[in-house]
Amino acid sequence: MQKSEDAAIHMPQDFSELTFVVGDLSSLEKMQTVSSLPIFSNQVIEFLSELSSILLKNGRSFSDVVTFAFWCRKAALLKERDKYKNCSLCFGRGIAFHSTPSNVPVNFAFSFAAGLLAGNKNIVRLPARDFEQVQIICSAVKMVLQKMPEMIPYIIMVKYPSKKEITDYFSSICLSRIVWGGDETIAHIRNSPLPPKAKEITFADRHSVAILDADAVLHTADIMRVAENFYNDTFFTDQNACTSPRILVWLGKNISDAQSYFWNAVYQVVKKKYELSPVQAVGKLAAFYRVASCKKVELVPTQDNLIMRIRVSSLDVDLMDFKYNSGFFFEYEATALSDILPLCSVKCQTITYYGSVSEKIKDFLNISVPNGVDRVVPLGKSMDFSLIWDGYDLIRELSREILLC
Amino acid sequence: MITLADLWEMAPYSCCKEEKTKVLTDELKQLTRYHCQHCPMYENMLRGVGYDEKKVQTLTDLPFLPVSLFKNLELRSIPQEEIFKTMTSSGTSGQAVSKIYLDKETSVRQQKALVKIVSSFTGFSRLPMLIIDSPSVIKNRLMFSARGAGILGFSIFGADRTYALNEQMEIDISAIENFLQRHEGQKILLFGFTFMIWQHFYKELLKLKKRFDFSRGILIHGGGWKKLISEAVEPQEFNRRLTEACGLHDIHDYYGMVEQTGCIYMQCEYGHLHASNFSDVIFRAPQDFSVCSVGERGIIQVVSFLPKSYPGHSLLTEDEGVLLGEDDCPCGRKGKYFKVLGRLKNAEIRGCSDTYAARF
Questions:
Q1: Is B168 part of any domain?
Q2: A181 vs B66, B348, B353: nearest CB
Q3: With CB atoms 3.0 to 4.6 Å apart as the test, which of A66, B151, B254, B270 could cross-link to B222 if both were Cys?
Q4: Which residue of A has its CA nearest to B43?
Q5: What is each CA distance from B284 to A82, A301, B295, in whole angstroms?
Q6: What angle do helix axes A42-58 and A107-117 make, rounded to 10 degrees?
């Protein structure tokens, strides 16, 4: 096999630092000779739904694993497939190299599943940290591969320390590079060149915004449910995911009543579930002073350091440069929804909302056409993965369509 | 009632709780107002936090700035042309360093306080001084690193200042031998940074099987235990081993930071760190920043009336410690005495961006 010998020659000297969690050197060689698959191929759907059933059993104790498993149920995938039924000649681009964030356990699985559904052969660089979730998912993948050995050349999962040569190598053999992990990681990985025909999808640092209708909050049937949802959008990821709201924009009449009702409930949830380390408490105080040093802001007194509320009287374009995590919230009382335009720069990813404001948001987006905002989702749904992410249709981005006239 | 002038005059550990609290509270309130008037960023910060001087009843009611702010912001209460020197913290490469802007006045205050504190341990005459470091540390005088500043600051207590390490940080045996010969039978001062002493002095002495007699020496060292804790060296162990290796037994650790130079916290004969007349320590509970009681672990806040050229008179450090008592240390010194437990542990924060994770 001439081809695989070529590949072997290009392999970096120090593969010793590379750990294969799924697959091995021989599957890496095979990967370079097997064909890509059509998008939403039956074997991929079968593979993922097998994976889903195993994870629904083995991953029960982790809500994020369950969420992933639920997402790749057969029925859910078939529903997704329907959206692409007009693509008759769509195939994976080739090898997709996924560099996944080191501090979100399950993100890699979504990235990988998207790559597979788009018909690609996938090399996934796993998070550096040893998350139990990663182990659970990887061993489930291996179990399915035993049943479906024909999928072996399509899935490789690796771990390696910061080693440019290895990244260089994977970059040199891929046709799509998917980079999670924010601006710094993107800058770092771009030191490794891609083949001319390859493309790159990057997930840069983003910020997100919550829009709350005060009257809807005051009249909600279940304020604790609202608080739980907000907790999942924010504290669950230390309020540090791209999707986590950094600012709450309040609409409506009884804003101050709604705020105390809302925060009181959120506090109860946070108090029960969240552990704030001393360094986070000091970090939040420093972040507050940093923004206060140059902007007109006001710290709203709270009972302790769990929730930091910062009232802002205007929405400046650079306000989000002062964002922080671990329960650090700007709050703004809007007179009209269009007030939020300065927040909706190209860096703005998700708007989460509570109350019947989605029509208003739609109008705002249509009229103002902000540079940013890639998702608008109800409160509590900010983390729900979708094949349309960050403004990319991942299936289309990771596949090619053949024109047949 | 004593005044600020009295605090400067009296012995550095002689002011009791009531008097100290009263005079420090008054002085720090005034300093807070002063910095508000002279540092617009500081004024904005206090407005943001809703500071109201009328509500300040005691020291602990004053606002405190996290020290990390000095890394990002140019915080000073003097115009550019009055900057006499800029001190920087000893950050490892790649990390932002704190920048502290000093004018003549603040610099003199720091120096005076340091003299009062240290001479109460070393005596008033200058002692022959052996610096356990390399002379290269103080070469660049434009930017004072914490290490360089420490050495220069302590140099005023020494005569015949001699470096025990060469430019390459290697132990200079002949320099030490000559130094000891010159001062045979005299009391001598040794100064250095805890980790440097351990790594480049103590360990080298062991390796070379060299036995010097420092039994007449007083060693003052600081700079933290972080690196040594990873080598599992406890303070008592450190002292014991040095006594064993070279007869040193008069050993004093100190706690201090570049953000509040001068008013260092010296360790007494009982192993306790002491606040002097020039500053105070407050321990705050991480969950709500409330004041901890004796024996309760907390984040260390330091207050001092020395900083006038920059708003660093009330700072929240990134260290944890515990208050052991006040005015009643068996060593006889008045004021608070405490223990430093180390740096706050870095949290592993979740999120999409890898900035917080160790470079992978």
A1: yes
A2: B353
A3: B254
A4: A293
A5: 58, 17, 12
A6: 160
Residues of A in contact with B353 (CB under 8 A): 101, 181-185, 205, 240, 242
> Does the beta-carbon distance from A203 to B360 stay under 8 Å?
no
Q: Which two tokens stand for residue B217?
A: 């020496």
State whether B243 and B299 are in the same domain. Answer: no
Alpha helices of B169-250 — where are they, by DSSP H? 173-182, 194-196, 203-208, 226-230, 235-246
| pLDDT for res B359 | 34
Q: A57-61, B88-92, B154-158, B190-194 — which is least confidently predicted?
A: B88-92
Flag whether B15 is in a domain: yes
Q: What percent of chain B is predicted at pLDDT more than 90?
A: 74
Residue B97 included in any domain: no
Yes or no, beta carbons of A286 and B356 under 8 Å apart: no
Residue A56 burial (10 A CB sphere; 0-12, 13-18, 19+):
middle
Distance of CA A163 to the CA centre of its chain: 24
- CATH, range A2-203+390-401: 3.40.605.10
- Give the closest-approach CA distance of A167 to chain B in angstroms: 12
- Which residue ranges make up each domain of chain A? 2-203+390-401, 207-378
DSSP assignments along B153-175, one per residue: HHHTTEEEEEESB-TTS-B-HHH
Domain residue limits at B338: 4-66+265-344
- CA nearest neighbour of A260 among A199, A289, A303, A324: A303
CB contact under 8 A, B50 and A298: yes
Closest CA to A95 of A7, A191, A164: A7
- Beta partners for residue B276, in sequence order: none
Domain co-membership, B206 together with B270 = no
| Chain B contacts to A (CB-CB under 8 A) | 41-42, 44-45, 47-50, 65-66, 68-69, 72-73, 286-289, 299, 316, 318, 320, 344-360
Nearest to A182 among B349, B352, B359 (CB): B352
Same domain, B214 and B282: no
Residue of A nearest to B299 (CA): A278
Q: CATH code at B317?
A: 2.30.38.10
> Is there a single domain that holds both residue B226 and residue B281?
no
CB-nearest to B352 from A181, A283, A298 is A181
- pLDDT tens by residue, B226-273: 777 777 788 888 999 999 999 999 999 999 988 999 999 999 999 999
For A241, name the nearest residue in chain B, comparing CA atoms only. Answer: B351
The residue of A238, A279, A291 whose CB has the most chain B CBs within 10 angstroms, and thus the best one to mutate to test that interface, is A279
Residue B44 to residue A292, Cβ atoms within 8 A: yes
Q: Which residues, in sequence order, are bridge partners of residue B162? A: B130
State how many domains chain B has: 2
Which of B233, B255, B277 terminates a domain? The answer is B255
CATH superfamily of domain region A207-378: Aldehyde Dehydrogenase; Chain A, domain 2 (3.40.309.10)
- Give the pLDDT band of residue A9 (cuts 50, 70, 90): very low
**Nearest CB neighbour to A326, from listed B68, B349, B353:** B349
B154 and B288 fall within a common domain: no
Chain segment B89-104, per-residue pLDDT in tens: 765 555 678 899 999 9
In a domain, B87, yes or no: no
CA-atom Rg of chain A in angstroms = 23
List of chain B residues whose C-beta atoms are within 8 Å of the C-beta of residue A297 = 48
Predicted ipTM of the assembly: 0.92
Amino acid identity of residue A350, one-letter, is T
- The residues, any chain, with a CB within 8 Å of residue A16's CB and separated by 6 or more, are none
Residues of A in contact with B356 (CB under 8 A): 103, 240
Same domain, B119 and B250: yes
How far out from the chain centre does Cα A86 lie?
27
* Residue in B with minimal Cα distance to A240: B351
